[in-house]
Amino acid sequence: MLSLVTGAAGFIGSHIVDRLLAEGHRVIGIDNFSGGQPENIAHLKGEDSFDFREMDICEYDALAEAMRNVDRVFHIAGIGDIVPSIEAPLDYHRANVDGTVSCLEAARANGVSRFLYAASSTCYGVAEIYPTPEDHPIRPEYPYALTKYMGEELVLHWAHVYGLSAISLRLFNVYGPRSRTTGAYGAVFGVFLAQKLAGKPYTVVGDGEQTRDFTYVSDVADAFLTVSESDISGEALNVGSGGSYSINSLIDLLGGEKMYIPKRPSEPDQTFADISRIQARTGWRAKVEFEDGVRRMLEHIDNWSDAPVWTPDMIANATSGWFKYLSK
Predict the structure, then answer these.
(1) How is the chain split into domains, by residue range?
(2) Model confidence at 328: pLDDT above 70
(3) Going by C-beta distance under 8 Å and a sequence separation of 6 or more, which residues neighbour residue 225?
(4) Inter-helix orientation angle 99-109/143-162, to 10°
């Protein structure tokens, strides 16, 4: 089996590459290093079954050439984070929408047998139902959420119109080793682990009682492999842990002092995936318990030694656009 992974040097993409290789696939990895890191795939240097190509997914001709004879495409590439998407929506449209069209057309031109897309649970916005099912109303609150959902709509449209065997997986709060350590203010684990290393208090948004469906990255990779081997097409499926955990409980596991910063507009008090559909259709379920996942992150804490240590003033400055544009 020959598989192609876009965003192969990124957080989730690199774990999917590892899992595919472990399953005996030959893998072509594509990344332009706008978000991915060379060190995420450095351990694969010299691996005969892995062919890495540095390119932008919007470069259609090169992408179509890379997809020759490919059986399965795992389209993980894209750019994330809320505030940068508010400040540079064109960049997000190009990467998350135009890039997805490029991947879909290259896959169609090459007769790819299976196409899997990494969508985002941010499409639900501030959900009204918990656990949140796939038929919940779609209410993206900012350009990142919108462009990822537009990508999903394209994937499902290509399945409907062109008969491409394609499916979208809506991911909830993925964490684990190789998650981003630099760049924009973002995921809570990266912020907290750098603060812990520096001996600084954790910056807790609101009262810390908000909960998140933290899903360990190896479980996400397993979901992609499991669904790729099914015959489900033209649908979106949630991928979550089966639980929802408070920020305060995360701090209890990490250990240390905390301070509170203002609650942010348009941010849900809870994320919690209804995963009954993917379980019923494929038998997949998450295996890594939250406490074990946090322990594994602490074992890799040195990876955050060069990460920015966010202070309340730095966070306020970095998220000023969030309050400016998303306040209702």
Answers:
(1) 2-174+215-239, 185-213+243-271+288-326
(2) no
(3) 16, 19, 20, 23
(4) 20
Over residues 233-286, the pLDDT tens digits come to 999 999 999 999 999 999 999 999 999 999 999 999 999 999 999 999 999 999
Centroid of chain to Cα 204: 22
Token output for 87: 């400040």
134-140 long-range contacts, Cβ below 8 Å, gap at least 24? 134/170, 134/235, 134/236, 134/237, 134/238, 134/274, 134/277
pLDDT at 135 over 80: yes
Which helix (H) or strand (E) segment holds residue 74: the answer is strand 72-75
Which fold does the domain 2-174+215-239 belong to in CATH?
Answer: Rossmann fold (3.40.50)
Closest CA to 119 of 247, 2, 189, 220: 220
Q: Which of 13-33 are b and which e, b meaning 16 or more Cβ less than 10 Å from the residue's Cβ?
A: bbbbbbbbbeeebbbbbbbbe
> Is-cis flag, bond preceding 38, omega within 30?
no
Instruction: Determine the Cα–Cα distance for residues 110 and 211; give it in Å rounded to an integer.
Output: 43
CATH for the stretch 185-213+243-271+288-326: 3.90.25.10
Instruction: Pull the structure tokens for residue 276.
Output: 């009954």
Q: What is the DSSP annotation of 115-175?
A: EEEEEEGGGG-S-SSSSBPTTSPP---SHHHHHHHHHHHHHHHHHHHH---EEEEEE-SEE
Phi first, then psi: what are they for 267, rounded to 5°?
-110, 130
66-102 pLDDT, tens per residue? 999 999 999 999 999 899 999 999 999 999 999 999 9
Tell me which residues are annotated as active site. 144
Q: What is the dihedral of CA 107, 111, 114, 116, to 10 degrees?
A: 10
Return the bridge partners of 31, or none.
54
